[in-house]
Design goal:
Helix content: 40-55%
Shape: globular
Largest sheet: 5 strands, parallel
CATH class of the largest domain: Alpha Beta
Bound molecules: phosphoric acid mono(formamide)ester, norvaline
Strand content: 5-15%
CATH architecture of the largest domain: 3-Layer(aba) Sandwich
Mean pLDDT: 98
Structural class: alpha/beta
Distance between the termini: 7 Å
Order of helices and strands: HEHEHEHEHEHEHEHEHEHH
CATH superfamily of the largest domain: Aspartate/ornithine carbamoyltransferase
Low-confidence stretches: none
Strand order of the largest sheet: 7-6-5-8-9
Number of strands: 9
Length: 305
């Protein structure tokens, strides 16, 4: 069996809907162990902070009948210069699956290349594929279908929007991205998404007008303005992104029954107001809980393919 990785959401392009459905199924059997995972161990290398990703992965492994080891690089020999290549070959000789939250996407690619067991990207500077499974589970639960719906992302053109634009294109959902020109998403992700969108019939639009981005939206999504590792740009980003705050004025442009999503953590008063987060349209905590069920789906899928 050739091992499968989840470094980019494109790695599961053909099976994405199947994995979302698996997540929804596993949600209904929360404490059931799974024969594919029983007795298996996951290593979790986390270079950056985490609440949801860490807790969901550790809990998922426990509930499925396996175990998880949280590995802080500064406690590992990696922190003293052991290479990613060697770390990967050593860990994959002992573990059954590895997750990696890294500053640099190239290191996740390298870890996967040298590993004989599946590697999951637990967020890097380019992508956050695990979050996509949870987000689309939530959309399936709240809206029912993806094709032809309008997804609006407003805020910083960061790792989240890179993964979101690909996933919207993959699932046939239209996406409209509102960012200042200076903080627009990585063009290579937009180009790739547009190629996929041609096949699925979805539309990928970019604008620097936030009201236009959310016009008639089914979903409004935002994320922090300053991602982990970008702290030096705080002042500039907070200034430039101010007109892109998701607030009660902006959401008036969306459909009445739109849903508000955020991968969290949220910085209330910056990218979103407290009012929108706490509104009846907000599904952020259902979305966060789905990180657990979607983590299980990713693990079960990778260990059985
Ligand atoms: N959404 C998300 O990945 O959250 P954490 O940084 O808490 O893991
Ligand atoms: N864009 C954010 C997402 C956090 C889950 C970051 O990378 O910090």
């Amino acid at each position: 069996m050739i091992k499968r990785d989840l470094v980019s959401i494109l790695d599961i392009r053909d099976d994405f809907n199947e994995i979302v459905n698996l997540g929804l199924k596993l949600k209904r059997s929360r404490y059931q162990t799974n024969p594919v995972v029983e007795g298996r161990s996951m290593g979790m290398i986390f270079e950056k902070s985490s609440t949801r990703t860490r807790v969901s992965l550790e809990t998922a492994m426990y509930q499925l009948g396996g175990n998880a080891l949280y590995l802080n690089p500064s406690d590992m020999q990696m922190g003293r210069g052991e290479t990613v290549e060697d770390t990967s070959r050593v860990l994959s000789g002992m573990l059954d699956i590895i997750t990696y939250r890294a500053f640099d996407h190239a290191n996740v690619v390298k870890l996967a290349k040298f590993s004989s067991v599946p590697v999951i990207n637990a967020l890097d500077d380019k992508e956050h594929p695990l979050q996509m499974i949870a987000d689309f589970m939530t959309i399936a639960e709240k809206i029912g279908s993806f094709q032809g719906k309008k997804f609006s992302y407003v805020g910083d053109g960061n790792n989240m929007v890179n993964s979101l634009v690909l996933t919207c294109a993959m699932t046939g959902m239209d996406i409209s991205i509102g960012t200042p020109k200076k903080h627009a998403p990585d063009q290579s992700f937009i180009d790739e998404a547009r190629k996929i969108a041609k096949q699925t019939g979805s539309k990928v639009a970019l604008t620097d007008n936030p009201a236009e981005a959310v016009e008639s939206a089914d979903i409004i999504y935002t994320d922090v303005w300053v991602s982990m590792g970008e702290e030096k740009q705080r002042e500039e980003k907070e200034r430039d992104l101010k007109p892109f705050q998701v607030n009660s004025q902006l959401v008036k442009n969306a459909k009445k029954d739109y849903i508000f999503m955020h991968c969290l953590p949220a910085h209330k008063g910056l990218e979103v107001t407290e009012e929108v987060c706490e509104s009846i349209n907000s599904v952020i905590f259902q979305e966060a809980e789905n990180r657990l069920h979607s983590a299980k789906a990713a693990i079960v899928y990778l260990l059985s393919h």
